[in-house]
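Q: Could you fold this chain for me?
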Amino acid sequence: MLSHHSTRFLEGLLVAVLVAASLSLAVVRADDRGASTGVAAGTMGALALADDVAAIRPAGSGPSFAIAAAPTPTPEPTSTPEPTPTPEPPAPALDEPVIAPEPVTPPVAETVAPPPPADTTPPPPPPAPEPSTTPCDYLCRGDRIVAGMALDVPDGWRVEVLPGRNGEQGRTFSSTRTIELYVRDSLSDSILAYALEHEAAHAWDFTTLTRPQREQWASARGYPEKVDQWYGGGGNVSDDRDLPAGDFAEAAAACVRGPAHHRSGLGGAPTPGQCQLVLSMVGLR
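A: Sure. Below is the predicted structure, expressed as structure tokens.
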């Protein structure tokens, strides 16, 4: 169904259409008659827009029409936009405990110990050969002991290995330049090796030692007055360790084999200085 305002608008529009049609018809007729009907402002009624629909009525000398103006449509109420909600401020953060970082322990610098000082101690004397587990006769033992000698024999001298003799370990013969080693089962290899170094020192004494050297040795050992009895007045001596020559040979053996088997009737084991002296007289140092 049409509303009241729509109905009034249509009625006004219809009146306007009818008026326009009447005017057009009048013009056509005037053209047909060859004359104008003299529609003018003075003879035509004016078009007037009124608030209400009016009937066509004469106004003055010409017709006057009133056309109800179309009512102004009442604007429909506009909706008021809803206000934008104001965001609520964020809730204050709760105080959280502050965790302190763990302390970083710096790495401990490693210290490198300096290398120990070089050992300047002279090496110990070579050990005496020990008996082998393999069965070995006197000749086998003697050859092994000779091969391990610390002192060399002077040029032209030789060592002869013989079976053991009671009361003797070795003997040196200056006339034949021979050293005899008596290998006895009751004697260890270390004792026989010590006896062989003793006899080798006798060979150096017979071959190269001079009187001034003998006097030097006798003075170093503290018996300079005995230098004239170096060999005990000559002859065949079974045990020379109580004579200057025997003390000299014992000292040389002790300096290369150690003092374990040293025995001398003229003094104790040689000192380092005495070792240096005696070894210089037997082809060493």
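A (continued): The beta strands are 47-50, 57-59, 62-68, 158-163, 170-173, 178-183.
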